[in-house]
Predict the structure of Glycoside hydrolase.
Amino acid sequence: MRHELHSPTGTVVIDNAGRMVFFHDGREALRGYGAVAHAYGVDFPITGVAGADVTAHHARIHYTTTRTEVTLRVEIEATPTGFRLVWSGPPHLHAVRVEWQLEPGRPWYGMGERIFQHWPLDSAPVVSDPFEPIDHGRDGTLNIATPFWLNAAGAAILLEEGDGELAVTMDRAGDGLLRITSREAPPPPNLGFDERYAAPGPNLASHIILAANAPAAFHAALPLLGRPTAAPPRDLFARPIWTTWAHYKMHITQRDVTEFATQIVARGYPYSVLEIDDRWQRGYGAYVFDQRKFPDPRAMVDELHAAGFKVTLWTPIFFDPADPAFAVAARRGYLIRHPADGSPYLVRWWQGYGGVLDLTNPEAVAWWLSELRALQAETGVDGFKFDAGEANFIPPDAICYAREPRRRYADRYTEFVADHFAYTEVRAGWRSQRRGILFREWDKWSRWGIDNGLHSVLTQALTLSVCGFPFVLPDMIGGNAYQDEVPDGELMVRWTQLSALLPTMQFSVHPWQYGAEVDAICRRYAHLHTELDSYLAELIDENLRDGTPLVRPLFWHDPNDEQALRCNDQFLLGARYLVAPVVQPGQRQRDVYLPAGVWRDYWSGAIHQGPAQLTDVPAPLEQMPLFERQE
């Protein structure tokens, strides 16, 4: 028997096999493929409907599967923006998986950062298991993750937060499916056999948002996603951030910092913050300067302030076992603990092994804040660059003050940062869209491609924007210059050009080390960024009013344009600027697609009527194709 439910924005039709199809204004927007129960190590797909209780706005449907005692049920409830679905099963289930067809709504966007940041998301297969914020995940999952998927037909899927572990695949082996799995929450560590403990069984709750198109679905989802009500300080957008990391790495000293600042000023570059990166401190977790490298940090900060810089310091959430700060934190119970004996859990990170601050412990958080504030009072630094915070640094068997899925650690981290610091940045997040701080893209490699190189700066900014993170900080211009992968002058220029038309930009590798031509081009684009100050302020105000992204996909103002929906190497800054960066080495001209509207070539003044495909647009080294929408 066929059932229909209605909401203010659409209809869901359920056939006699239990499959769901969602419509908006009579147009198909999303099609369910099925659901799978997992028990005893085996998948059991649904086979039909055992019973249904359906009204106009609510349904409870019971499904049979390929095994008699394994059942699934779903409750469907109409909401103002679409429908809410809750899948569940009996306690002996280990997982429930819901499967959605990628057609007819392709292309798809969202989900968060990936090492190979394809745009649209379904341009390449996706595997994320577990799906949570991860530092350099083996399956490509990265630091900022959000369970939100959006398609061109105006349908969006947003998971509610639960206790189960998540896994996601998209078009794996070309199956044309988005598969979302929730596994049962693991039992508490050291429980052993205890008949009083029974896992409730997995469930998967989600909202299906239905709207006219992708931008409309994005806006409809914002009350559920959350959005910031305040923005970072304006000077972080108005002028570039400078950081010591890519050039100096861990060899940074007080003398290096002051000489770096002197060079920035003398060479006529604009600047806002000078961030002092790794190895300024005595030891990880110790909020005091290394006196051998920084003999007078207060004098250094005062000198930088006098020159007009704000000053921030890099800090992770790790504690070096060799530093006295570790013993203090461990004695007070402020570090996550090992289940074997309750001692601090030593976790591997990129600088060895360390203890991890337990952000679920309110006393630990208050103590950490007091340490940071004391350092600020002593030295005058303005804020901190907060690094790490991903779920993979919390071992599955770790004992924390509060028991919760480890993916929430990233959001606790961002909450702490946003509550206490303005001059700051983070690189991890989980459902953290409501935090009004800079979210930095993951550390980029000094290469050109979509494989975590220059091209991925663009696609990652687009992805974060449509996930609801408006204040995107691209990683350092030229990448991190790791090992023998050092940017050449051409890559440095093209990276600077792209970053200049993003809301924020960040230098580290010295542009002047490449000679006069590269230096002059980079300086010109740094100043072009400052010329956008007033316009960026308008975009920030618009975002705070209604959530509209600052960085927008090419389709944002023409959401039915098929070419714009799939364009992966151009973007819009607000509605006014269309940016077509050069992301291939040696390229001195490129094709540019203009969506609907009247566009003026920023460099030549030529007027073009869109939609239009322009071929061989000039792109000499000193010039990035850029167009301005005419009123």
